[in-house]
Backbone:
């Protein structure tokens, strides 16, 4: 637990916990309340959507397996109207489950059982990424591709490309150091404020795939985001 100015800031942070297991809901709610977050809970998709309409959250913790509507389907509904950071908290820990969740738009994926320290660290990490302000130069101009750090817009041949917060941060990180090769571990540290001890490095692979799908003419033969086999990724200006 913390106190002082840091706690005052976190008390303004709203977290919505969506899980059909009352014990898990209560455990997470008590844990985050003790940490200074303002926490609401829902046991199904309809209740979660209603709460989000009435009181927009800063981050959503979402179970994957729920009755009536799965967490994946609920996230798809949320993403129609909001880019609120979403962390899956699930008992399904296979890599395929994690990749599917990330591919569909989740910001992070925590496997049950989890430690209190891990969950809190993941929440702070996605919140930092969501509120990260651009510094230094305000626009990266590569001819057909422009990245505006002030408006957080990616423009390809005059058309705005919709990106999530993480996709934008990852693209900016690579584009600010053209041709420099970064490993997935370096990218996790600098873009996710994380490491392979906390987060699967496949997160980086999946986000690169999603960016390529949006900005590359042929994602299988990328022009901008190149793979350096056995090492990592680089941005080609």
Residues:
């Amino acid at each position: 637990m913390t106190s002082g100015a840091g706690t005052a800031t976190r008390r303004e942070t709203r977290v919505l916990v969506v899980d059909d297991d009352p014990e898990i809901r209560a455990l997470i709610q008590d844990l985050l309340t003790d940490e200074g977050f303002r926490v609401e809970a829902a046991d199904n998709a309809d209740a979660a959507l209603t709460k989000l309409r009435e009181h927009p959250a800063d981050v959503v913790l979402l179970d994957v397996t729920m009755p009536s509507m799965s967490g994946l389907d609920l996230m798809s509904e949320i993403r129609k109207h909001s880019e609120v950071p979403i962390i899956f908290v699930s008992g399904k820990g296979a890599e395929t489950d994690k990749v599917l969740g990330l591919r569909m738009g989740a910001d992070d994926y925590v496997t049950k059982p989890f430690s209190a320290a891990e969950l809190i660290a993941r929440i702070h990490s996605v919140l930092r990424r969501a509120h990260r302000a651009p510094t230094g130069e305000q626009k990266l101009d590569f001819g057909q591709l422009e990245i505006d750090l002030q408006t957080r817009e990616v423009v390809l041949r005059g058309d705005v490309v919709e990106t999530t917060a993480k996709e934008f941060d990852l693209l900016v990180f690579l584009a600010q150091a053209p041709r420099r090769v970064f490993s997935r571990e370096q990218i996790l540290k600098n873009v996710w404020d994380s490491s392979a001890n906390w987060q699967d490095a496949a997160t980086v692979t999946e986000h690169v795939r999603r960016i390529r799908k949006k900005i590359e003419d042929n994602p299988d033969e990328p022009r901008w985001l190149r793979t350096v086999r056995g090492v990592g990724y680089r941005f080609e200006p």
